Structure of TauD/TfdA family dioxygenase:
Amino acid sequence: MSTPHASSLRGLEVSPGKPPILRAELTGDAPTWVAEHRDALHAVIDEHGALLVRGLGLGDTGQVGAVFQRLASGGLMGERESFAPRTAYAPGVYSSTKWQPNEPMCMHHELSYALEFPNLMMFACRTAPGAGGATAVCDSAAVLDALPADLVARFEREGWLLSRNYNDEMGASYAEAFGTADRGAVEDYCRANAIDFEWQSGGGLRTWQRRYAVVAHPISGRNCWFNQIAFLNEWTLDPDVREFLVDVYGRESLPFNTHFGNGDPVGPDIVHLLNQVYQANTRREPWQSGDLLLVDNIRTAHSREPFQGPREVLVGLGDPVGMGGFSAEVTA
């Protein structure tokens, strides 16, 4: 039996500055079409890192869930350690992260701070926004090649450190992030996942976890820049928002922040550089209602651009991958 290839899909468009776009020739329902073309769709993702499928007419939550199930050969996974709330519609089917529409979510790899993360990200657009709101993508191997060698070497050597403060006032509470309000269960999860933790007066929780910043892709073996160093750093926040949070809570109590693996701060110059490199390698295509976007979460970072008007995009986390991280021996 021959191996499916991207060229076996008719109507595939590959253009500079955009993810590959496939205009589906749908004769039946979307889940059946996806099941029939799954291997060829995965071949495109393996070749290009992402694929936008147009013409499936996705809208119903059950239909979207069935499409996600057929695409994720390794199954769907639930989300733990979320940094902002989501709505769960079905097992493995979520709303987009709740984030201010006028604020961008810069490039990141989903759950790259966790020991288990999805290899395949799936996005289904039920309602396209009136303006903006694209889920843009970026080749992480290209980002790695474009970054200064000494900076990459330090992150390869030390990893990166994520610090988080969970409370009921900003971001996700620990009950939302860990799926339980039971302190003992939260502590067990942290110990099992190389996360240092400290309970705060008033019931809050502070955690630290050290992870790899560069990983080898499980299929190609190519090294990829894989982390959320820029996205979850204080200097990516809107300046007014950052100033307010620092004034009210202090830098040590920000909802999240990132550091070098030894605890040193990642300053605004580095964050600016990272976001510049991401921008130089970004591909985007405006959403149309019914679209399906498939993203190799290790090879390809994704973002969410500011938007106006209603926007509803469902998210599926597929084909979970387990990877060890540095132990969280250093606290900031």
